What we know:
By secondary structure, the chain is α/β, with parallel strands linked by helices. The protein folds into 2 domains: 28-123 and 251-318, D-Maltodextrin-Binding Protein, domain 2; 126-241, D-Maltodextrin-Binding Protein, domain 2, CATH 3.40.190.10. Helix content is 45%, strand content 17%. The protein has helices at 2-21, 43-59, 74-81, 96-103, 139-148, 163-175, 187-196, 206-214, 238-241, 262-276, 279-287, 297-318, and strands spanning 32-36, 63-67, 89-94, 115-123, 126-130, 154-157, 180-183, 201-205, 219-223, 252-257, 291-292. Helix 4 crosses helix 12. It is globular, with a radius of gyration of 22 Å.
Amino acid sequence: MKFATTGAFAALMLFGAICAAQPQQPFPTKPIRMIVGFTAGSEIDIVGRMIAQEMSGHWGHRVVVDNRTGAGGTVGAAIAATAAPDGYTLLLNSVSHAASQALYPKLPYDTLRDFAPVSQATSAPNVLLIAPSRGIKSVKELIAASRQKSGQANYGSAGVGSGTHITGEMFRLAAKLTVSHIPYKGVPEVLADTATGRIHYSFAPIGNALPFVKDRRLLALAVTTAARMPSLPDVPTVSESAIPGFEWDQWYGLFAPAKTPRAIVNLLSKEMARVLGLPQIKERLAVRGSVAKASTPEQFEKFVRIEVQRIGKAIKDGGISLQ
């Protein structure tokens, strides 16, 4: 009798563990909102729509991209941070997520405490771009020309606090330049004004930059990753060109509000892994110069913590501010 009771208790505990590992009801049962804190047509928006389309087809419920732009992605992140933690509001954010805590002293949320990391999505460089009409062919030439026009030269970004802004500031500090920052609403606007020469140079995600480079409307001087990219094999890295050790990965990743049930976070992470493992998605991302890079919630949480510390230190040490 004692054995039977012990066995029944063990079976009950096992059943409870299985139930705890699974959502209490089928998920999803209604549309999901994926907040993107940058403009339509930006690289993160394009990647988000790729993922959303595949998820929608698999689940039979729409995953709707909701562009909530402003303040380097923090407007959209603030909305996601206060959403119901039920898995039906998600945030696709960029590396700027890791920088926001150091840049915005009055941020209405905590980058680490108020989000449940789901999975990394991609890894890609920013590209240093300039109009061919300027006659500059290398990073060293750009640095020399900018120093000659000290205080007159400028660079553009996708907005204050965006990854392209922080890349530009890190480049400015490392190259010891006195240049002005011109913030735009999004990447498409930056590229248009860089191509026309209204701004001297800019950094942009490789996916957005490639069409302009291939059409020769813009010249790619360098990529910000540690290694060259297969989609731009003849374009050197910033590190090998002029600033040893310079590196910036314009990664994207998916987050849920904190306190979202772990079972739902795990389910979302597995769905991200499925989508990012699809040959057609890998190919579409590769064409845009990005690498699909899924991760478990645990792996992504560790990665984000390291990035927050690393980028926060760079911002503090470099005196980078929103001014």
